[in-house]
Amino acid sequence: MSFTSKNSSLTPLYRIGAVSQTTGIPVTTLRIWETRYGAFSPVKTPGKQRLYEEQDVSKALLLKQLSQSGHAISAIAHLELATLRRLSSQAQPLSHSGQPTPQVASVAVVGLSLANRMESQKFVLSLQQNRIQLSEVWADLAAASSAELHTPAQVLLIKVNTLNAQVHAAIQLLMRKHQFAQTIVIYHFAAEAVVQAMKFSGCMVRREPISDSELAELLQSVLFVDPARAQEFGTSGAVITSRKYSEATLSRVAGISTNVLCECPRHVAELITQLASFEEYSQDCLNNSAEDAHLHAYLASISGSARVLFENALEKIAQLEGIDLREGKS
Questions:
Q1: Where does a domain end: 92, 109, 136?
Q2: pLDDT tens profile 95-115
Q3: Gap between the Cα atoms of 176 and 156, Å rounded
Q4: Do 222 and 270 sit in the same domain of this protein?
């Protein structure tokens, strides 16, 4: 059960039992970490009830992970969240062959509650063989817009309650500032026009509620099935990049007369449009059908990787033919 801080109507507070249930850490252990090692400084009610903030939940999850990997709680309990996350990212899990599992994707997260979900053991297990590393975690868009990205991130994952024109503009600024390969936005309320505008700007947009397994499949839908082949697809890391060209640009290219004796520009532009449409269709199916989520995540990743290949091909054709692929060009 959560409460609200007296200082801010937007800051939830949790009883120790709720923290224990969320993190899987016994209440007695949380109390020992607090009283003996100074890990937390919870708010105390007049009745001496402990109330924990969202960042305390984040810290508890990280302390649990690090202590299970061999760190002494006495040595890490006093560390800041950012330091704990760096330590956690350095712990490479081993594959069955005994070799470190390849890093799948680094993710920057906006929203502490969303970060807590992704750091839970349940969510880690839902990713199966893939691995997600949280490179940065910001409380909200305001904090993200004024902060620097200390560790490069391939995916930006955002949780907002209301998606409106102002939020859309703030997200676009953040995307341009850090050049993420993919941006995924999860929201509660939004006008359809804003959702469509977000999609046209290259974002993947999903409405709550979304379960841990659905979120895991959504993230995996932007990852290649075989991360070792990422270089073959010409992408950064193993992440399928968002669309490079709008429908307007592709339509313009398809209608250009060229000097070559074939119609490659038109065919390639049309293929990109078709692949992008099927990619979005598969992602929508992923969101609407939990039973076949893994299949639709696979189809989305295959169509997305093929789209990237043809976008690279279009760039080569454009260079040869002197076609300007920038938006708004005629």
A1: 92
A2: 444 444 444 578 999 999 899
A3: 12
A4: no
